[in-house]
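Quick review question:
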């Protein structure tokens, strides 16, 4: 923020409808919030939980926490009250700022502010000097919980600074642009943008919750230049009936990630955003951005790649022992760099498992081709072992998504007395389309070995269950098949 005030003081910093602030005005408001928090007893290392929709209050509290050395705990707004309690019990925050429209936790804290019902104390308090400790924890970003209970990822100030550099490498900021927070601010794909934007004098605007029409209106009204979406959002945008009535020509860069995007969506997205360069981003809560697939690489077989890492990130493929494998060989992706987390909050065992020999083990199975491009095949915990053969769910899903009738797919293993596990698939069809299980199997046989073909196919009437970041929650689809049984892959 101080850099923004020094170089861009009178430029717009926040634009939310009629709520507009310059960097100078935002800086003063952040200092006032920091002064109130200090008056409330918040000291460096204390935690403040945020359960808020995207908006200016979110940004101000995050900046105020960074100023004081207080650890911000952004909570997924899609969690239930019970799940929110789990996060609060783990993080033990001193206080909570929440919106009344979101689930109210039962865990009682020493201080709680319902931001839409009561304003902050407006007393005249002294703001302390800004905390400068690069290795201090800035935030606890709780994982999406796609494979179990979320863990608190300790993200340091230095981690976020590295992410800002990587953000700029992929997004190529220009001074004075506009960034739209369309994805949830609590997610690591969007969280670093709060710090990248002021570093380059960019104005920030946001959607409290995503809708196709709301996105288009925001882009048109604020002349948005940069944003980050997940493929699910892009998919519904392309299906908006009157999307052509909006002027979306201002978008220069669209970054996307979080799940596989059907190849047919690429030309549809280019038609929707004619001036936008596409960047596919691969990363995790524990690492921030790791790789990117540049716009010019969105062709042919490279569409299945997650790209290459930017300078400062060392990404490799390793076997079970941690030994690096050759190009083309499958293994687990491991990464090191200034972007990698300090560890998991209150969880030494999982930290020791994840951080070994200086590398973070991502849990993603993939390979690197001869040109240095990385390909993700599956989550290690999602890999299916059927009759002694490994099946990578991502590979099967990519084939299923090439069928013109399929909108979404999720592949996972279910128990089988003969083979140990067999391949199952849950399918969501496009509106007005039809398909049978036999038709899907025939489609898969054109591209996959026999043991990779789904043996059980279910067609869903609703969208696949997803986390707040848009990742498919396969455990919710899989768990009904596994009561009282142990998976071959755990």
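Suggested answer, residue by residue:
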């Amino acid at each position: 923020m101080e850099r923004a005030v020094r170089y861009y003081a009178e430029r717009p910093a926040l634009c939310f409808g009629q709520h507009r602030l310059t960097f100078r005005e935002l800086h003063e408001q952040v200092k006032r919030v920091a002064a109130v928090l200090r008056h409330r007893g918040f000291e460096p290392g204390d935690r403040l939980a945020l359960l808020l929709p995207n908006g200016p209050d979110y940004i101000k509290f995050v900046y105020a926490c960074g100023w004081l050395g207080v650890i911000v705990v952004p909570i997924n707004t899609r969690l239930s009250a019970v799940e929110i309690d789990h996060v609060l019990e783990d993080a033990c925050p001193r206080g909570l700022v929440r919106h009344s429209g979101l689930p109210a936790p039962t865990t009682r804290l020493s201080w709680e502010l319902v931001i839409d019902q009561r304003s902050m104390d407006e007393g005249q308090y002294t703001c302390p000097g800004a905390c400068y400790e690069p290795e201090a924890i800035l935030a606890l970003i709780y994982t999406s919980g796609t494979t179990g209970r979320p863990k608190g990822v300790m993200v340091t100030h230095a981690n976020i600074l590295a992410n800002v550099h990587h953000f700029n490498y992929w997004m190529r900021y220009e001074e004075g642009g506009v960034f739209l927070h369309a994805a949830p601010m609590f997610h690591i794909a969007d969280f670093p943008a709060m710090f990248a934007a002021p570093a380059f004098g960019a104005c920030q605007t946001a959607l409290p919750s995503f809708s196709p029409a709301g996105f288009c209106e925001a882009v048109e009204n604020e002349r948005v230049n940069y944003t980050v979406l997940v493929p699910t959002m892009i998919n519904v945008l392309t299906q908006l009936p009157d999307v052509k009535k909006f002027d979306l020509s201002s978008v220069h860069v669209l970054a996307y990630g979080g799940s596989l995007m059907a190849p047919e969506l690429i030309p549809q997205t280019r038609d929707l955003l004619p001036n936008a360069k596409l960047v596919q981003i691969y990363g995790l809560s524990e690492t921030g951005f790791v790789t990117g697939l540049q716009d010019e690489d969105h062709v042919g077989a490279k569409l299945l790649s997650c790209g290459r890492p930017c300078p400062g990130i060392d990404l490799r493929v390793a076997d079970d022992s941690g030994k690096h494998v050759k190009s083309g060989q499958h293994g687990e992706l491991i990464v090191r760099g200034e972007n990698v987390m300090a560890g998991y909050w209150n969880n030494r065992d999982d930290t020791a498992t994840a951080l070994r020999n200086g590398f973070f083990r991502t849990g993603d199975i993939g390979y690197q081709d001869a040109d240095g491009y990385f390909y993700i095949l599956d989550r290690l915990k999602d890999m299916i072992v059927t009759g002694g053969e490994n099946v990578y769910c991502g590979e099967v899903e990519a084939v299923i998504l090439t069928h013109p009738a399929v909108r979404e797919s999720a592949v996972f293993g279910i128990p089988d007395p003969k083979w140990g596990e067999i391949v199952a698939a849950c399918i969501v069809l496009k509106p007005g389309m039809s398909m049978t299980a036999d038709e899907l199997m025939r489609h898969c046989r054109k591209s996959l070995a026999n043991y990779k073909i789904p043996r059980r196919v279910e067609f869903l009437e609703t969208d696949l269950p997803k986390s707040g970041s848009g990742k498919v929650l396969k455990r919710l689809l899989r768990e009904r098949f596994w009561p009282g049984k142990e998976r071959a892959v755990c």
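Why it works: The longest strand covers residues 406-416. The chain is about 25% helix and 25% strand.
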